[in-house]
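Researcher: Please translate sequence to C-alpha coordinates.
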Amino acid sequence: MSNSINKSHVVLTNVRLSYVHLTEPYASQPGADEKYSAMVLVPKDNAANTKKIETAIAAATAKAREKYGKGFPDKPKTSVHDGDGTRPSDGMPYADECQQHWVFTASNKRQPTIVDRALQPILDSTEIYSGMYANVGITFFPYNTANNKGIGIALDNVQKIRDGEPLGGMRVSAEDDFAGLIEENEPAAVDPITGEPLYS
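Model: Translation complete:
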Protein backbone atom coordinates (compact mmCIF):
# COMPACT_ATOMS: atom_id res chain seq x y z
CA MET A 1 0.00 0.00 0.00
CA SER A 2 1.45 3.38 -0.98
CA ASN A 3 1.82 6.22 1.48
CA SER A 4 -1.20 8.54 1.07
CA ILE A 5 0.49 11.45 2.89
CA ASN A 6 3.98 11.45 1.44
CA LYS A 7 3.41 11.01 -2.28
CA SER A 8 7.14 10.71 -2.93
CA HIS A 9 7.16 7.46 -0.93
CA VAL A 10 5.95 4.36 -2.78
CA VAL A 11 5.97 0.59 -2.47
CA LEU A 12 7.07 -1.30 -5.58
CA THR A 13 6.01 -4.94 -5.79
CA ASN A 14 7.64 -8.03 -7.25
CA VAL A 15 10.98 -6.47 -8.15
CA ARG A 16 14.39 -8.12 -8.27
CA LEU A 17 17.41 -6.96 -6.29
CA SER A 18 21.03 -6.89 -7.43
CA TYR A 19 24.29 -5.53 -5.97
CA VAL A 20 22.74 -6.11 -2.55
CA HIS A 21 24.38 -4.46 0.48
CA LEU A 22 21.61 -4.69 3.05
CA THR A 23 23.27 -6.39 6.02
CA GLU A 24 26.46 -4.28 6.06
CA PRO A 25 27.00 -0.72 4.78
CA TYR A 26 29.13 -0.29 1.70
CA ALA A 27 31.09 2.57 0.13
CA SER A 28 30.78 2.68 -3.66
CA GLN A 29 34.20 4.31 -3.99
CA PRO A 30 37.10 5.35 -1.74
CA GLY A 31 36.15 8.30 0.42
CA ALA A 32 32.41 7.91 -0.18
CA ASP A 33 29.92 7.53 2.65
CA GLU A 34 29.09 3.97 3.60
CA LYS A 35 25.44 3.15 2.92
CA TYR A 36 23.06 0.23 2.78
CA SER A 37 21.96 -0.18 -0.80
CA ALA A 38 20.56 -2.35 -3.57
CA MET A 39 20.02 -2.06 -7.29
CA VAL A 40 16.31 -2.47 -7.98
CA LEU A 41 15.14 -4.06 -11.23
CA VAL A 42 11.54 -3.13 -12.08
CA PRO A 43 9.92 -5.01 -14.99
CA LYS A 44 8.75 -2.54 -17.63
CA ASP A 45 5.55 -4.52 -18.21
CA ASN A 46 4.38 -3.78 -14.65
CA ALA A 47 2.35 -0.65 -15.42
CA ALA A 48 1.37 -0.11 -11.79
CA ASN A 49 4.99 0.09 -10.63
CA THR A 50 5.91 2.39 -13.50
CA LYS A 51 3.04 4.73 -12.62
CA LYS A 52 4.12 4.79 -8.97
CA ILE A 53 7.65 5.78 -9.98
CA GLU A 54 6.41 8.57 -12.26
CA THR A 55 4.04 9.91 -9.61
CA ALA A 56 6.70 9.86 -6.89
CA ILE A 57 9.23 11.66 -9.09
CA ALA A 58 6.64 14.31 -9.91
CA ALA A 59 5.85 14.76 -6.21
CA ALA A 60 9.52 15.07 -5.25
CA THR A 61 10.08 17.55 -8.07
CA ALA A 62 7.11 19.68 -6.98
CA LYS A 63 8.46 19.78 -3.41
CA ALA A 64 11.88 20.81 -4.68
CA ARG A 65 10.52 23.62 -6.82
CA GLU A 66 8.49 24.91 -3.87
CA LYS A 67 11.62 24.87 -1.71
CA TYR A 68 14.29 25.97 -4.17
CA GLY A 69 12.25 27.95 -6.69
CA LYS A 70 12.79 28.06 -10.42
CA GLY A 71 16.48 27.27 -9.96
CA PHE A 72 15.46 23.64 -9.61
CA PRO A 73 14.70 22.13 -13.04
CA ASP A 74 11.13 21.32 -13.99
CA LYS A 75 12.36 18.01 -15.43
CA PRO A 76 15.34 17.04 -13.27
CA LYS A 77 17.64 14.12 -13.89
CA THR A 78 16.69 11.03 -11.93
CA SER A 79 18.37 7.84 -10.80
CA VAL A 80 15.94 5.66 -12.81
CA HIS A 81 17.51 4.29 -15.99
CA ASP A 82 16.51 2.07 -18.91
CA GLY A 83 18.01 -1.40 -18.52
CA ASP A 84 17.91 -1.82 -22.30
CA GLY A 85 20.26 1.13 -22.67
CA THR A 86 23.75 1.83 -21.37
CA ARG A 87 25.02 2.60 -17.90
CA PRO A 88 25.49 6.35 -17.34
CA SER A 89 28.64 5.67 -15.33
CA ASP A 90 30.69 4.15 -18.18
CA GLY A 91 28.50 3.89 -21.29
CA MET A 92 28.57 0.08 -21.23
CA PRO A 93 25.41 -2.02 -21.68
CA TYR A 94 23.60 -3.15 -18.57
CA ALA A 95 23.84 -6.84 -17.58
CA ASP A 96 21.43 -9.33 -19.11
CA GLU A 97 19.17 -9.41 -16.04
CA CYS A 98 18.50 -5.68 -16.50
CA GLN A 99 16.98 -6.10 -19.95
CA GLN A 100 13.29 -5.11 -20.11
CA HIS A 101 13.56 -3.44 -16.70
CA TRP A 102 13.78 0.02 -15.22
CA VAL A 103 16.94 0.09 -13.14
CA PHE A 104 17.96 2.23 -10.19
CA THR A 105 20.04 2.07 -7.03
CA ALA A 106 18.35 3.00 -3.75
CA SER A 107 20.39 3.56 -0.60
CA ASN A 108 20.24 4.77 2.96
CA LYS A 109 22.73 5.50 5.75
CA ARG A 110 20.21 3.85 8.08
CA GLN A 111 19.76 0.10 7.63
CA PRO A 112 16.43 -0.68 5.96
CA THR A 113 13.99 -2.93 7.77
CA ILE A 114 14.14 -6.37 6.12
CA VAL A 115 11.24 -8.78 6.60
CA ASP A 116 9.81 -11.96 5.12
CA ARG A 117 6.35 -12.58 3.70
CA ALA A 118 4.95 -12.89 7.23
CA LEU A 119 6.49 -9.49 8.13
CA GLN A 120 8.98 -11.16 10.46
CA PRO A 121 12.55 -9.81 10.53
CA ILE A 122 15.02 -11.85 8.50
CA LEU A 123 17.91 -12.61 10.83
CA ASP A 124 19.83 -15.04 8.61
CA SER A 125 22.05 -12.90 6.39
CA THR A 126 22.40 -15.73 3.86
CA GLU A 127 18.72 -15.22 3.00
CA ILE A 128 19.55 -11.74 1.66
CA TYR A 129 21.39 -11.85 -1.66
CA SER A 130 21.59 -10.48 -5.19
CA GLY A 131 18.95 -12.18 -7.31
CA MET A 132 16.15 -12.49 -4.78
CA TYR A 133 12.68 -11.02 -5.41
CA ALA A 134 11.14 -8.46 -3.10
CA ASN A 135 8.71 -5.67 -2.42
CA VAL A 136 10.50 -2.42 -1.59
CA GLY A 137 9.45 0.78 0.14
CA ILE A 138 11.38 3.72 -1.32
CA THR A 139 11.31 7.50 -1.09
CA PHE A 140 12.24 9.86 -3.94
CA PHE A 141 13.98 13.02 -2.72
CA PRO A 142 15.54 16.08 -4.34
CA TYR A 143 19.18 17.08 -4.09
CA ASN A 144 20.23 20.59 -4.97
CA THR A 145 23.81 21.80 -5.21
CA ALA A 146 25.42 24.35 -7.48
CA ASN A 147 26.50 21.74 -10.02
CA ASN A 148 24.21 18.82 -9.29
CA LYS A 149 20.43 18.95 -9.16
CA GLY A 150 18.13 15.97 -9.43
CA ILE A 151 16.03 13.31 -7.74
CA GLY A 152 17.60 10.51 -5.70
CA ILE A 153 16.07 7.41 -4.12
CA ALA A 154 16.19 6.32 -0.48
CA LEU A 155 15.68 2.67 0.43
CA ASP A 156 13.38 2.39 3.45
CA ASN A 157 12.06 -1.17 3.72
CA VAL A 158 12.54 -4.53 2.01
CA GLN A 159 10.19 -7.53 2.05
CA LYS A 160 11.65 -10.68 0.54
CA ILE A 161 8.89 -12.52 -1.32
CA ARG A 162 10.74 -15.39 -2.98
CA ASP A 163 14.12 -16.77 -3.92
CA GLY A 164 15.67 -16.28 -7.33
CA GLU A 165 18.77 -17.43 -9.15
CA PRO A 166 21.71 -15.72 -7.42
CA LEU A 167 23.34 -13.05 -9.54
CA GLY A 168 27.11 -13.14 -9.74
CA GLY A 169 27.30 -16.92 -9.35
CA MET A 170 26.51 -19.35 -6.59
CA ARG A 171 28.37 -18.86 -3.32
CA VAL A 172 30.52 -21.86 -2.40
CA SER A 173 30.70 -22.83 1.27
CA ALA A 174 33.94 -22.92 3.25
CA GLU A 175 33.33 -26.63 3.85
CA ASP A 176 33.27 -27.30 0.11
CA ASP A 177 36.48 -25.33 -0.43
CA PHE A 178 38.60 -26.53 2.46
CA ALA A 179 37.35 -29.94 3.63
CA GLY A 180 40.24 -32.43 3.61
CA LEU A 181 42.97 -29.93 2.69
CA ILE A 182 44.89 -30.39 5.95
CA GLU A 183 44.89 -34.17 5.61
CA GLU A 184 45.82 -34.06 1.94
CA ASN A 185 48.43 -31.32 1.86
CA GLU A 186 50.11 -31.25 5.27
CA PRO A 187 51.99 -33.88 7.25
CA ALA A 188 50.10 -35.19 10.26
CA ALA A 189 50.91 -33.42 13.51
CA VAL A 190 52.69 -35.75 15.97
CA ASP A 191 53.69 -35.60 19.57
CA PRO A 192 57.42 -34.70 19.59
CA ILE A 193 58.12 -37.17 22.42
CA THR A 194 55.99 -40.21 21.65
CA GLY A 195 55.67 -39.77 17.90
CA GLU A 196 51.95 -40.48 18.17
CA PRO A 197 49.53 -38.51 15.94
CA LEU A 198 47.94 -35.57 17.73
CA TYR A 199 44.74 -36.08 15.78
CA SER A 200 43.42 -38.76 13.53
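Researcher: Any highlights?
Model: The helical segments are 47-68, 174-178, 181-185.
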